[in-house]
Amino acid sequence: MPLVRIDLLEGKSEQYRAQVGDILYQTLVDVLNVPEHDRFQVITEHTKASLPFDREYLGVHRSDDCIFFQITLNSGRSTELKQRFYKALADHLHEGVKIRTEDVFISFVEVSKENWSFGNGEAQYVTPPK
């Protein structure tokens, strides 16, 4: 855990996408204490027509550079820790790839540990490895 989906408009370089993934992973490790090597990301580019979003929702002006992060992870982290993560990720992306903090959209999807299988048809967080 976590499984991360990163969605953005097409046109960014492979290096840019890789750097976004690297920054996200390191922020997960540093702030949310995700274990080393626990990196599972799906990065998808979309045409403008296939990624509609409100550019002014809640008074936040979003540009074509907006990136959506959907992070599925185990439940149990505090609101304060999540808020620290939101700020850290937005700041690190601004520093690393020069994205505006307004263009960093983050959503957590929390699940219980029995909802994961990392292979072999086993629930590794529930039953000990054989």
Structure description:
With 130 residues, the protein is of the alpha/beta class. It has a single domain, classed as Macrophage Migration Inhibitory Factor. The chain contains two helices and four strands.
Task: Please provide a brief summary of the model.
The chain is built from two helices and four strands, in the order E-H-E-E-H-E.
Mean pLDDT: 92
CATH superfamily label: Macrophage Migration Inhibitory Factor
Strand order of the largest sheet: 2-1-3-4
Portion in helices:
25-40%
Major sheet size, sense and barrel closure: 4 strands, mixed
Give the CATH topology: Macrophage Migration Inhibitory Factor
Run of helices and strands: EHEEHE
What structural category arises from helix and sheet content? alpha/beta
Q: At CATH's second level, what is the architecture?
A: 2-Layer Sandwich
Shape by Cα distribution: globular
What are the low-pLDDT stretches, counting only 5+ consecutive residues below 50? Answer: none
Please provide the count of β strands: 4
Percent of residues in β-strands: 15-25%
> Could you say how many structural domains there are in total?
1
Q: Total helix count?
A: 2
The end-to-end span amounts to 20 Å
Q: How many whole angstroms does the radius of gyration measure?
A: 16 Å
The CATH class assignment is Alpha Beta
